[in-house]
Structures are given as structure tokens and as C-alpha cells.
Design goal:
This protein is an alpha/beta fold. The chain has ten helices and 13 strands. The strands form three sheets. Strands 3-4-7-8-9-10-12-13 form an eight-stranded parallel barrel. Strands 5-6-11 form a three-stranded antiparallel β-sheet, with no helix packed on it. It has a two-stranded antiparallel ribbon with strand order 1-2. A hairpin with a 4-residue loop joins strand 5 and strand 6. It is globular and about 50 Å long.
Length: 321
């Protein structure tokens, strides 16, 4: 089915194609029979002390405003992460802001955390009825916030208070929000995670925390970041987000566009980072591997490097569900 639709979708602007996909899912345009998965029992795994049907997840960024996460679960994902969610509604950066690099099996985006805002998204999450998959909520600050840390804490407190997520991801790694990646520095990361733990104590909740890491960190920082994640009892590290580097070997002219690069070109760096983090954190913190997955072999490489689960996005854009 996707092979028939792909030429039509790829003739559209990437963001229009994405919006069309969201609307199609929202109105259940695709028949249920296309989603059936056979012999899935062999992939069952345990995540956050519960059984899920497989270790394959959908990364944040597809369902930014939690509009179609229930419909997406029919694709067979074991976990789905919505967001990035900010306290206030945000329109993001000027369009165009998503670019296909077809020869490179990659995307570049500079969306800028466009989403419907915390209050609206919480109402949608409150309507969840399907517990068969693990649901994560990815949170971040508004671009014009006077305190990124306060925005993280506000989102976290409200989502956890209403028990709307199986885990919450602290997104400190998007290249499209100015100075956000400063939270990879020792003091900023420690202060943020201490504030987050204080919010959890107020609520007396055990909802797991994930931190999403940039692929552009220096290898020399890995041990320091790992020690901070362990110190503040982070449960999951997601490796990695998009990169604003590594453009020199790309073929498509869109490689010159500003934004975060995802897809096949970041697979090698993602796998390297997973392996380096795993050597330090071992089984103390679960690793979700992200970056360049487009096949079973891609998943296998992530897991053999130390990931317990994986998430994909760009691979689905090019190859379909």
C-alpha cells in the first residue's frame, strides 16, 4: 500500500505530507486489516516493569500534539512517544522547515517545537483507552521562556500529577531551540535534574524519567553526563536526537539547510554513542536507541551496542509502516 502512496506523498511538501498522514490517521482512513502483525509473541519484552509486545518504538516528533497516538499503536509499536510538548502553544519556526534528502535517506528539520501546548495535549492524553503500548511524553521549553528549567518542571509536574504518561522525556538535545543544548554541561544538567527530582518528590511519584541526548556531544563528556544521570536516578537515556553536523558526505542539495539531520547518516554516530554510554551505565539505566533505523538489522545493531529498545521515525517516512 505504501509503495502506491509514496510517489504522491513525495510530490507534496514534507510538512503537508505529514499533516495529511495525521489527518488520515485521525479519521481512520486506512482499514484495520492493513495493521495486522503476525507471530509477534517472540518479540515480547519487559519495559518499565511491564510487558510490551515488542521493543520497537515511534520517536517523538511524529505525533507532536498527541492527536493520533491510539491510531499509531495499530502499526504494531511497543512504545510511542508524543511531543515535544511545551507549556504554551507554539507555532515553531517559519516554513519551509522540513527537507527531504532522498539520496541520503535523511531528513533535515528546523520545526522548533511546534505543538498545541500543555493544556490541550493533557486533555487528549486523558482520553487514552489502550494500555497495550508504553506511552512516553517528550517535554521542552517555549523558545521565548525566561526560564527553560521552570518550563520543564511545569510540564513534568502537570503530566505526572494526572498520571498521563508511562514515562516523561526531558528533551535537552534539539538543535532548533537556542541554548537548549547547554543543559549537557555539568552544572546546568545537575541543576535541572535536581529540580526535576524535587518535583517528583512533591508528587510522591515513581514515574520514570528519560533524558534525550544530542549526538553532537564530545566523547570526553560521556562519563561526566553518565555520572550525573546515575546520581539523579534517571531511568532511561535516549540516544540520540538529530545532528547539526556531519553534512560533508551528503549528496542532496538540501544538506545546506539549517536544522537537525536525521536518518541513515546518523546511524553510525548513534551506535557509537550507545556503545560508549553502555560501557559506563551498563544496566543501571535503560538505553533507547534512535538514529538511522530502517530494517531489522538496524534494530539488531542498536541492541548489540547496548540499547534495550529502539525508536524510529525517518525510516518510516522512506519505507512506510
Amino acid at each position: 500500500m505504501f509503495s502506491i502512496l509514496k510517489p504522491f506523498l513525495f510530490n507534496l511538501d514534507p510538512e503537508k505530507a505529514h499533516d495529511l498522514a495525521i489527518k488520515s490517521l485521525k479519521f481512520n482512513v486506512i482499514p484495520e486489516k492493513f495493521f495486522k502483525v503476525e507471530n509477534e509473541e517472540i518479540l515480547e519484552t519487559t519495559f518499565l516493569k511491564r510487558k510490551i509486545k515488542n521493543p520497537i518504538g515511534l520517536a517523538a516528533g511524529f505525533d507532536k500534539s498527541a492527536e493520533v497516538y491510539s491510531q499509531l499503536s495499530k502499526f504494531g509499536f511497543g512504545l510511542i512517544e508524543v511531543g515535544t510538548v511545551t507549556p504554551r502553544k507554539q507555532f515553531g519556526n517559519p516554513k519551509p522547515r522540513i527537507f527531504r534528502l532522498e539520496e541520503d535517506e535523511a531528513l533535515i528539520n528546523r520545526l522548533g517545537f511546534n505543538n498545541d501546548g500543555l493544556e490541550t495535549i493533557m486533555k487528549r492524553l486523558d482520553r487514552r483507552i489502550d494500555p497495550s503500548f508504553s506511552l512516553g511524553v517528550n517535554i521542552g521549553p517555549n523558545f521565548d521562556s525566561s526560564s527553560y528549567e521552570a518550563d520543564f518542571c511545569l510540564c513534568l509536574f502537570n503530566i505526572m500529577k494526572r498520571r498521563l504518561a508511562d514515562y516523561v522525556t526531558i528533551n535537552i538535545s534539539s538543535p532548533n531551540t537556542e541554548n537548549l543544548r547547554d543543559f549537557h554541561n555539568q552544572n546546568e544538567l545537575g541543576n535541572l535534574l535536581e529540580a526535576i527530582q524535587n518535583e517528583k518528590k512533591k508528587l510522591n511519584t515513581n514515574t520514570p524519567i528519560a533524558v534525550k541526548i544530542s549526538p553532537d556531544i564530545e566523547n570526553s563528556k560521556i562519563e561526566l553526563i553518565s555520572d550525573i544521570l546515575i546520581k539523579y536516578s534517571v531511568n532511561i537515556v535516549i540516544i540520540s536526537n538529530t545532528t547539526d553536523r556531519n553534512r560533508e558526505h551528503l549528496k542532496n542539495i538540501n544538506k545546506l539547510e539549517k536544522g537537525g539531520l536525521s536518518g541513515k547518516p546518523i546511524e553510525k554516530r548513534s551506535n557509537e554513542l550507545i556503545n560508549l554510554f553502555y560501557k559506563i551505565i551498563g544496566k543501571k539505566i535503560k538505553i533507547i536507541g534512535v538514529g538511522g533505523i530502517d530494517s531489522g538489522m538496524g534494530v539488531f545493531k542498536k541492541i548489540t551496542n547496548g540499547a534495550s529498545l529502539v525508536q524510529l521515525y525517518t525510516g518510516m517516512v522512506y519505507n512506510g509502516p
